Amino acid sequence: MKLLHWAQQFEEVVWLDSNSEVNKKHLKYSSFDLVLAVDALTSIKTDFHEAFDTLEEYQRHTADWIFGYLTYDLKNAVSELKSNNADGLKFPELYFFQPKKLIFLKGKQLELHYLKFVEDELDSDIKSILNTNTSKSKDVMSKLAIKSKVSKSDYLDKVRQMQYHIKRGDIYEANFCMEFFTNEATINPLQTYLKLNSISETPFASFLKLESNYLLSASPERYLKKEGQKIISQPIKGTASRSQEQKLDQQQAANLNKDVKERSENIMITDLVRNDLSRTAMRGSVQVEELCELYSFKQVHQLISTVISKVETKTPVTDVLKTTFPMGSMTGAPKESAMKIIETLEESKRGLYSGSVGYISPEGDADFNVVIRSILYNETLKYVSFSVGSAITFKSIPENEYDECLLKSKAMREVLEN
């Protein structure tokens, strides 16, 4: 962790950690164990207007590694939609930067990529990293009182409204989310992230600092990866809690694996992802590599599917992002109708929650996660937020969906409320 402590001196930081020691099964498509990008040479931040075209132009102009995020509200760039809900975080809707300094770790191999005009700092940086003190710094945390934007009774009523839309045939499924937040909050972002990651140890964890905006993420989900002509998407749908008692834990995993409702959620979203990928795929190349595969994390069991496709060599990754965003696991089916209903029933603008963090390489390859199980912090506004959600279907039991949200919020609450 010396690298991440050392990185705190910079205004722009993206740290992507696969927690490779505990996630062997999840790393089939991983290019690196961890990546650190710091210190912007150039950057772009914009709202949703022509966001994907702006990103493509920026990537083509830099012809370099770029790191950053896409917020959920870029949906408004690809559909006739709006985001009118309350926004306490005020993050830009898209933010990417070209780092001066880039560090990759894969197995025991460490690679440092420095831009030419900072190459002379490499030796001193290595010494500084090796000498970095990682002893726990004093936590700067105000006493946090986490509040929900939606009461339990309102949540249950909104789920029933969602099911009314399903019964009418407007949608088959939708991901319904609620925000937990606190005002006038001061936290230590680095220590908060380290605590969250130690509790969860997920394969798409990330720490993001862009000026005074922070993302502290323990995401288990990949949104999209481009590897040459190959595209990989791995939607998650289906969740069960873990138990410390081995037999009970195995039983809970087995129950999830055969749960008709949970599997139907996953299959519907897998079909949506197949359809999204087909918009840029070469004919006949879209395949479901895994369907409802059981994966186990420290806190939950999940059902994950893997969908792959092949694109033409000339197809830029921004085209694939534009035609698949937002990810199906965080919207519903049909996607546009689900997003319209989500906007009317949710109380908060999602922003970076259910968006994505990742990178695009000089060759146009990319890897992006899904921002879930994450804490967001605007240091200037002293606003702390995390959101959780679940997939609502006709067979959903509103009380159970509420309990699933509380299960998903457990790690964030534990970290913020000690």
Any key phrases for this structure?
418 residues; alpha+beta; 19-stranded antiparallel sheet; 11 helices; 32% strand; globular
Topology (elements, then pairings):
Blueprint: H1 2-7, E1 12-17, E2 34-46, H2 51-62, E3 66-70, H3 75-78, E4 94-106, E5 109-114, H4 122-130, E6 147-148, H5 152-168, E7 173-182, H6 189-200, E8 204-210, E9 213-219, E10 222-227, E11 230-234, E12 236-241, H7 246-258, H8 260-278, E13 287-296, E14 300-310, H9 317-324, E15 332-333, H10 335-345, E16 356-360, E17 366-369, E18 374-378, E19 383-392, H11 398-417
Antiparallel strand pairs: 1-2, 1-8, 2-4, 3-4, 3-16, 4-5, 6-7, 7-15, 7-19, 8-9, 9-18, 10-11, 10-17, 11-14, 12-14, 13-14, 16-17, 18-19
Helix pairs in contact: 2-9, 5-11, 6-11
Description of the molecule:
It contains eleven helices and 19 strands. The chain is an alpha+beta fold and 418 residues long. The protein has a 19-stranded antiparallel beta sheet that branches.
Shape: globular
Distance between the termini: 22 Å
The helix/strand class is alpha+beta
Strand elements, count: 19
Parts with pLDDT < 50 across at least 5 consecutive residues:
none
The number of helical segments is 11
Overall pLDDT: 95
**Topology as a string of helices (H) and strands (E):** HEEHEHEEHEHEHEEEEEHHEEHEHEEEEH
Gyration radius, in Å: 20 Å
Question: Main β-sheet, in a few words?
Answer: 19 strands, antiparallel
Instruction: Please bin the fraction of helical residues.
Output: 25-40%
Strand content: 25-35%
Task: Summarize this entry quickly.
The chain is of the alpha+beta class and 418 residues long.
